[in-house]
Write a structure and sequence with these properties.
- By secondary structure, this protein is of the alpha/beta class.
- It has two domains: 121 residues, NAD(P)-binding Rossmann-like Domain (Rossmann fold, 3-Layer(aba) Sandwich); 140 residues, NAD(P)-binding Rossmann-like Domain (Rossmann fold).
- It is built from eleven helices and twelve strands.
- Strands 3-2-1-4-5-6 form a six-stranded parallel β-sheet. It has a six-stranded parallel β-sheet with strand order 9-8-7-10-11-12.
Length: 291
């Protein structure tokens, strides 16, 4: 199969990100069929169909992020139906490229597709890098909504100096916040200091005192019961880490600490940008694999 053989994309399920993804692909002169969007009525040049016909009539199929729910149904917030792929759909998917998010989870739900051409766009480095900006912007928006003061002059702690932590720290500093950044790595701590932030060693974090807002980006249990006992009660904690996250929310409630789980921020705060990122990543995969 060559990339030129792909003329029609089927998009099955998803939220506003997939709608903007569909529009962007259509604007690139491809046909697009949407399945699992039966709450919608009119989408201009886009074709609405049921999932079976969407898969049958497409040359490549794109599933959303996340692609499947815990009951193996497809993630279809724009449909009232519970959609589970049947034998006919699985048979069709065996003979065309399929793009999913969280491939392992998808294959646990549909193990018969193990030998199909399944590509995980969410595992690509470019996807993670590009998503860091809308995630960081969404985190600031979340803070502006939940915090009763202003970001200007606030005392902010960012835990983790990866892709999101780097951009988030820069955004907060540009808003004139007082920014402290935690990292485990000595080289990162040096960079944090050079960039004008206050450095802090993550594994020496025994208490959180004197901060208005804390942003956690580390996907491990940082804010356990012990640390929460030593956290100021008026501190807002925003957990950006992927599940299971980095905050014990039950303990936070017990200690009367305001904690917010902020997941999938690109899809909630910047769905157009998020859709473009998915398209860019998928088109890169196609270019690499189907020359």
């Amino acid at each position: 199969m060559r990339s030129s053989d792909i003329k029609t994309f089927g998009i099955v399920g998803g939220d506003k990100r997939q709608l903007f993804l569909a529009k962007s692909i259509s604007d690139s002169c491809y046909d697009v069929v949407l399945g699992g969007f039966d709450k919608l009525r009119n989408l201009d040049s886009l074709v609405l169909a049921d999932v079976k016909n969407t898969i049958r009539n497409s040359d490549a199929v794109i599933f959303p992020l996340p692609s499947v729910r815990s009951d193996a149904s497809i993630n279809t917030p724009f449909s009232d139906k519970t959609i589970i792929l049947g034998e006919e759909e699985i048979s069709q998917l065996m003979c065309k490229p399929v793009f999913v998010a969280m491939r392992d989870r998808f294959l646990r739900a549909y193990p018969k597709l193990h030998d199909a051409r399944i590509f995980d766009y969410s595992a690509r480095e470019e996807f993670s890098v590009l998503n860091a900006l809308p995630t960081a912007e969404g985190a600031v928006e979340c803070a502006m909504s939940a915090y009763e003061g202003t970001i200007f002059g606030s005392r902010c702690l960012v835990i983790g100096f990866g892709r999101i932590g780097k951009i988030l720290s820069k955004l907060l500093k540009s808003l004139e916040a007082q920014v402290t950044v935690c990292s485990r790595k000595d080289d990162s701590l040096a960079l944090i200091s050079v960039l004008g932030y206050n450095p802090c060693k993550t594994n020496k974090l025994k208490s959180v005192r004197g901060y208005d807002i804390v942003f956690n980006t580390v996907p491990s249990m940082i804010f356990d019961d012990e640390l929460l006992q030593n956290t100021d009660k008026n501190t807002l904690i925003i957990d950006l880490a992927s599940l299971p996250g980095g905050v014990d929310f039950e303990s936070a409630g017990k200690h009367n600490i305001d904690a917010v789980r902020a997941l999938s921020l690109p899809g909630k705060c910047a769905p157009k940008a998020a859709g473009e990122i998915i398209k860019t990543t998928i088109f890169s995969i196609i270019k690499e694999v189907y020359r």
